[in-house]
């Protein structure tokens, strides 16, 4: 049925785009909710991860999956070090200083990548099983998009379980809701921050590598897409995995549908929608407390 | 028995507060320098005009960021509103007198500021930041789409601006008129902002920035003050944008972009927010470095800028002027011993 | 004794003056930093290579390049750069301009400065109308777009077309050019899809999905050269559009030589119309490509931007020689009216009326050959002028 195929391909495309947004942004949402820290360098970690993955594949001959693992671990380690050394000093500082610090960090990342690798786009060569199309009954669709959706769902479920069913997850949730109370209960906040930050940045790195097929990879990546990651986090609500998930899907699908049917509108709709949503619910669609 | 108020009036703190607005000895220096540049560096007037306009824009941001404590990444929305107001009126043959053009630019930008301020200033923190960003992005996209009026991506070029007072022409190759015109406008706007900042209104803004809760408790109309401040700041930013369009006889989407908004924020913080002259120091430092360093070593310029920002955020929270103040205070302390 | 000193002094002054007359200063404005850095490098290398390969044609004059970085397409920096080149560096000739907005913004200063200005890339059609001193040696979007419309209808037998274009002036120019000649030759454009802005590379999937659903014979795509083009080829392959019988065509920006090999097999089947690519088979180009690889590396390749710089410098040197180092702008324009040159892209000349370039357009298909992507020429149109100005369409009509 033609109508079904149309809708299906639209949903698939939008959801796949949303999954990339989710994987990159979930780390930002948790760290912002947990640490109350405006980390504009998050897109930079996604970019560095993407570069680590692409270059590992190109120069060391790693397969796609091992490269993804490498990217995750490498960026998690780097970000943990940065957190311990630099970020900790600014936890009590004002928003403005945090914005400045992280913008400076992004500039450093962008310039370093330009100097070390070059200003051109880095193409990602997918393994051949992931290229081409797959038959889904209703319609044929790009294999990679379908795979990405599956990966996104697995990650979302995994994260949800981790947050709801593990002790560390409970600690994080507690600290997000009321840090002082959590501290008085004996939870080591400093260590929690570092681990969460490293994990969040690792996720961003993963997203950068997985999304390179759609979003490309060049030194401007960190700043180009930052606004979208921030929008997903602001709309979804800080510190909530489910919030980010639904917000990312919503924005991914809407963006896709709008681009297909009203391409003349450009990004107008996404920005307009975000403004309306944030005015209606400043804490985000699923956020618990107001973003402060 | 002397009345308490008479005794307190002699107190050093009271005296300091009452004399805050008085002209300091070094305050005329920037203006003298600006006039000197006109005679000493006639070939750099194009760059110098751009510098003065950036200072004006940074001053408008200082009002809202340094004094009222509103962190915004969307201030270019007002700069662009002013620029396009002037540009569209001139290009479509409706109005091209420069001075009244600036007034129109201020009014248009103030309207945008008032409208967005009323709506956005109900929120704070990340939400406010995002909203200011999205509002600016919306305006930019709207300008891109309305290309029949705004020229879209290419912008509006060769704006026919009438000569100043009917006599002084804006020459694109030798911007002497532009420079003096911008300098005069900057002076007028600066005097206005300075008076505002040292008035009771300005003081209440500082109170709001330091402790909003207490200001509410004291009964100050917090939101009204914030919205007023935002609107006034938008008007000044609009004047900066309008004069940019006039001086360059050109306007395009760059006037509304994130690049411009982020750069002015960096400039202000570099110089020192909440200090009025931070805009001057920051703009000179940033643009001089950018113009001359980036010629020599372009990518290293971005790296250096990033490092500078990180260092400032960690160690020099109040920018260059903040550092200068600290040193001055330390000198005063040591000489006291 | 006094007489001797005066004589020596006079000789020295005259020699200095003579040496000055031998030096010609060319002010170059290009985006050496920022997103356009790659393109700036290509044009710059093209200019330098011409000077190197044709050193004998330059003698006895000395061409000094004074470079300024315009950083971005916003126009403001370009204005300052051009103004400073004219008033501080006192250049004799201006050159450069990658981005159309910068060329548009610079026009009033160029006119006020009264110097010859050679545009080496910016492609919006009406730019050359904005100042009487602009001469363009690169291309107009209408060169390729208009020719491709004709070729799509006649050579490829396309009856229906969907046009996808990046939503900024060169994109709109391309759309207008293609549509005009495609429909003049019996075709019908069934859909026009603006595909995001020139800044960030969008995900093309939704736009291409829409095009695929319309089932056209040809899908004409214009995107800026560089990363946009790579994403286009990838999305075309990933959505299986070739299997669905939709030919992807466009101006040569989508198969830019510097990105072509990285696109790999995904680029096979793309049909493009352009005035230049590195696989053109003529003696001038063979010499050019060989010299380029020798100078800049075996894996490096010139492209249409490099050739814009190369030919631009050829025009400048011609002017210098003809006017014997004394560059008067009106005489320079007169000289260029009759200029003909064997460029790596074939024979070129400057249209005396519009000051825009007149050149061949080649229809090419991307195929795999000897393990690399090769552009095979399947058609050619000689002496193409910018149709927009020729037919005085829209903003191209003389002011």
In short:
Chain A is mostly helical and 292 residues long. Chain A has 12 helices and 2 strands. Chain A starts with a helix and ends in a 12-residue tail after the last helix.
Structure commentary:
The complex is a heterotrimer of chains A (292), B (337) and C (399). By secondary structure, chain A is mainly α. Helix content of chain A is 73%, strand content 2%. Chain A has a single domain (2-280), classed as ABC transporter involved in vitamin B12 uptake, BtuC, CATH 1.10.3470. Chain A has a two-stranded antiparallel ribbon with strand order 1-2. The model of chain B has no long low-confidence stretch (mean pLDDT 86). In chain B, helix 3 runs antiparallel to helix 9, helix 9 packs antiparallel against helix 12 and helix 14 (278-296) packs antiparallel against helix 15. Chain B starts with a helix and ends with a helix. Chain B has helices at 4-9, 12-18, 29-40, 45-67, 76-91, 98-120, 125-145, 147-150, 176-197, 200-210, 212-218, 222-248, 258-271, 278-296, 298-315, 319-336. Chain B is an all-alpha fold and 337 residues long. Chain C is an alpha/beta fold. In chain C, 43% of the residues lie in helices and 22% in strands. Classes of the chains: A mainly alpha (292), B mainly alpha (337), C alpha/beta (399). Chains in contact: A-B, A-C, B-C. Chains A and B meet through helix 4, helix 10 and helix 12 of A and helix 7, helix 13 and helix 15 of B.
